[in-house]
């Protein structure tokens, strides 16, 4: 019974992975220090990747708090984890989210979350590579606007492949448990 259950879980996981965007195209963006970064810079380590924007009134702060808490839980489980896992926040609003704005915004969530921005075209291409929907809403009387976007955090393995994604309903504990499980399974395959 346990064997069949594990087999079914493995098949469901494989089916789910086939449905995930592959992120093969990668990205070419700038970090908060102004350094050019690409997906290739993060190969060899694990990445938690979230697309959002600093002017988001509620969803992005909630997701970043959850991501920060998941990182804390993972660090408690394995103090050697920080160099193995890089959290990334890619803005979907590059017109307002320059490097300095991202740095100020992200310091409130977790010190290891690295912000990435770029030209509108670069950001659009990065979002498209992961199948992330992005649409800027109409401007109000003050010229302010919100950006509607997919609310997903992607887990990329050391080969740069998407291994899982987490939506709004995932808790920090579930994300931490899933990431740890993927890391252990990957390690077992690599050994």
TrEMBL record:
Q: Which Gene3D superfamilies match?
A: Glutaredoxin
What molecular function does GO assign, one term? Answer: metal ion binding
GO cellular component assignments = mitochondrial inner membrane
List the GO biological process terms.
mitochondrial respiratory chain complex IV assembly
Keywords linked to the UniProt accession = Copper, Disulfide bond, Metal-binding
Membrane topology type, per the record? Answer: Single-pass membrane protein
Name the CDD domains on file: SCO (cd02968)
Q: Which residues bind Cu cation?
A: 56, 60, 149
The record's subcellular locations are: Mitochondrion inner membrane
InterPro entries found in the cross-reference section: SCO1/SenC, Thioredoxin-like_sf
Q: Give the intrachain disulfide bonds.
A: 56-60
Q: Which family does it belong to?
A: Belongs to the SCO1/2 family.
Protein name (database record)? SCO2 protein
What is the species listed in this Swiss-Prot or TrEMBL entry?
Answer: Chaetops frenatus
Gene name as annotated: Sco2
């Amino acid at each position: 019974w346990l064997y069949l259950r594990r087999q079914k879980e493995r098949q469901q996981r494989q089916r789910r992975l086939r449905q995930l965007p592959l992120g093969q195209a990668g990205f070419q963006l700038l970090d908060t220090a102004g350094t050019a970064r690409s997906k290739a810079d993060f190969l060899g380590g694990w990445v938690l990747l979230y697309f959002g924007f600093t002017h988001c009134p509620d969803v992005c702060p909630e997701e970043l708090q959850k991501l920060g808490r998941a990182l804390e839980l993972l660090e408690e489980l394995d103090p050697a984890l920080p160099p193995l896992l890089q959290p990334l926040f890619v803005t979907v609003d590059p017109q307002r989210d320059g490097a300095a704005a991202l740095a100020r915004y992200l310091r409130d969530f977790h010190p290891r979350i690295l912000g990435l921005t770029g030209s509108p075209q670069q950001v659009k291409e990065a979002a498209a590579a992961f199948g992330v929907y992005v649409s800027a809403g109409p401007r109000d009387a003050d010229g302010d606007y919100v950006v509607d976007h997919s609310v997903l955090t992607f887990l990329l393995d050391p080969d740069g492949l998407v291994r899982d994604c987490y939506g709004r309903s995932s808790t920090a504990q579930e994300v931490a448990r899933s990431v740890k499980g993927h890391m252990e399974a990957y390690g077992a395959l690599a050994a």
